[in-house]
Design brief:
single chain; alpha+beta; two-stranded antiparallel ribbon; 9 strands
């Protein structure tokens, strides 16, 4: 497997139908797809390149691949997220990666047309995908994408929130945490049960 293909669900057959959240990052994290505007509610104002990717390239997917639908598109200054539904299994020899490759090819053409360096791809090699395991999590995914501009605003205003130790009140306890406390809102959280061994006193 290509090490640049940042897939997460190694157990999943990507030729099969499914619902995915796909993330692609601009090469060098260059913030060329849009700008953060901080009014009453932070939002992203797309650049010309960002607008055309959102309005043209994301909509071409269904035209080329009739079994593929983009349910939600989230544009950020240096990356994009898409929630993609693959309605039916792909034809023999095709998979999700072929769809993303076609999308990237169209974005590269736009990038070069608007003055980007010829031969240099707009996005980093590979992409990240998350497979929807439980349909009820779809709303959580959508809310997470809608909240992206606000989280970016907070990160710029308070970078310490993403790397420091905090006293966080969880239920009736004050906890110490390290790192990005917004990971508590991550849409991929799953409940787990940990079974321990009961300690028996020595006699």
């Amino acid at each position: 497997m290509n090490r640049n293909f940042k897939q997460r669900a190694y157990h999943h057959d990507y030729h099969r139908a499914g619902i995915y959240m796909v993330t692609m990052v601009v090469s060098g994290r260059a913030p060329i797809l849009g700008s953060l505007v901080c009014g009453d509610r932070p939002k992203i104002i797309p650049s010309d390149l960002g607008w055309r990717i959102k309005l043209q390239e994301s909509k071409k997917m269904h035209g080329v691949h009739r079994n593929v639908e983009v349910w939600k598109f989230c544009l950020m200054p240096d990356h994009v997220h898409m929630i993609i539904r693959v309605k039916t299994d792909f034809p023999q020899g095709m998979h999700l990666g072929d769809v993303i490759r076609g999308f990237k090819t169209g974005c590269n053409r736009l990038y070069w047309e608007l003055g980007g360096r010829k031969g240099q791809g707009l996005f980093e090699t590979g992409y990240n995908d998350r497979l929807l395991k439980y349909y009820e999590h779809l709303k959580v995914w959508k809310n997470y994408l809608d909240d992206n501009p606000r989280r970016l605003y907070i990160k710029r205003q308070h970078p310490e929130f993403f790397r420091s130790i905090h006293n966080v009140q969880i239920l009736d306890r004050s906890c110490q945490i390290i790192g990005n406390r917004f990971l508590l809102d991550n849409p991929d959280k799953e409940a787990v049960i940990v079974e321990g061994t009961e300690k028996v006193p020595l006699r």
